[in-house]
Amino acid sequence: MKKLLTVAIAGCLAVSGCAAFAACGSGGDANHTIVFYSSQGQELVSVTTAAIEAFEAKYPGWKVEHTQPGGYDEVLSKVRSDLTAGLQPDLAYCYADHVAQYIESGKVVDMSKYLTNAESYTYTVGEEEHKVERIGFTEEEKASFITGYFEEGFAKNFTGYEDAGLDENALLTLPFVKSTEVLYYNPDALEELGYEEPPKTWKELWEICAAAKDEWDSCTPLGYDSEANWFITMAQQKEFGYTSTDPTNHYLFNNDGAKAWLNEIKGYYTNKYFTTQQIYGSYTSSLFVKGPEDGGLIFCIGSTGGAKNQSGGELFTTEVAPIPGIDEDHMQCISQGPSLVMLTGGQGASNASEKEIMTFQFVKELLDVKFQSKFSRASGYAPMRTDVYKEENFARFREGEDEDGNRLTGTDLIVSKCIKAGTGDDFNGRLFVSPAFVGSSTARQQMTSVVQFVLLGQKDAATALADAYKNCGGK
Predict the structure, then answer these.
(1) Residue 433 and residue 188: Cα distance in Å, rounded?
(2) The model's pTM
(3) Are residues 34 and 103 in contact, defined by beta-carbon separation less than 8 angstroms?
(4) Measuring CA to CA, which residue among 333, 310, 363 is closest to residue 423?
(5) Which of 360, 458, 426, 143 minimizes the C-alpha distance to 352?
(6) Rg (CA), the chain
(7) pLDDT in tens, 7-59
(8) Mind listing the domains of the chain with CATH numbers?
């Protein structure tokens, strides 16, 4: 008996470490437990519990283990480490450049085979049979996916997909919820300066910044919470180039247009028109809420996902607008926020095909209309299906009302304004995503440094861009 037990334990550990030992010791739980990694904070974990409970009630015998390794970078690091050990989760939050690093493992699931699969599926737990009525979404449900978000997941948007044996139309990710950047602003300060509306162009914004400095010398009119996003967005609006999926020419940012823009904002920085997150040392929302007369901001450009941090409290009522553009034909906004990637064959499970099907059923719960509405209202992220906009509670929230028809107040009202400013057919047409490839995350990190170096006078624009190009592996 001792020898048999020793062999059993050793075999269990050899398969997949402690997690496998727990699964083996409990009679094969790894075969019926979906492991899900996200970067959610506790408030959103509580919201996601509703989807987990709905899934577990619908499919007896199956469980979801929801783990938060940390932020997006920590999720990336954890998944990469787990892939090496064969312990990868079944489902994970991701950005496109994360998936570009997972493809070579051969473990990324092509979800196109499940997407609109009309077949049913029967699974067995113990001696009991249970039925999945339809594996995939209906064609009507699929048609409600916001096109721009949905098409981000096709393999043709990632380098290396062919080497992994994937077709260009393989579906590697599905969007979960999305954020973008918006312009939070202090309407009282604008009114005092004689402006009735927020700026729609950068030219208008810099004019207001100049007026604000004349009125309140200690004021820093604008805060931008992501240097990298600013560079990438301006590359899109001004069409001077950032990156490309072309493996022979990934890095486009070392160009005259980028140098000109960096030199332009260096002048505005010298005039103390703005600060950024890295230079200030914290999210600039903490300056925004102070008020301009006390050295605060008038405008803060930040993520819709951070709406609850942008409250003016008793000083002013925060308003929200899309970020400025160059002109009406160049108003692009960056699309961010988590997508979902399925990974196969991990956690010591012996039923990979069945786990894929059941993991996809959990994906369907996360993309359910009512859950998407609930998650969006709690977070400020935009839902990924147009039919969520028609859901009663979401439609009310988007217009500033709660489920009972009462006017929203406080941070809930700011979230509502964010959702309205960052959703809708007209706005969705402004969204863009950057190309994803192994090394695209490095380019993003380098852009943060480039902007800082130039603004702080540590490097001129030409040197900063040239150094970044070398640091990304360019020659």
Answers:
(1) 34
(2) 0.85
(3) no
(4) 333
(5) 360
(6) 24
(7) 333 333 333 333 333 343 334 489 999 999 999 999 999 999 999 999 999 99
(8) 22-176+337-367 (3.40.190.10), 179-336+407-471 (3.40.190.10)
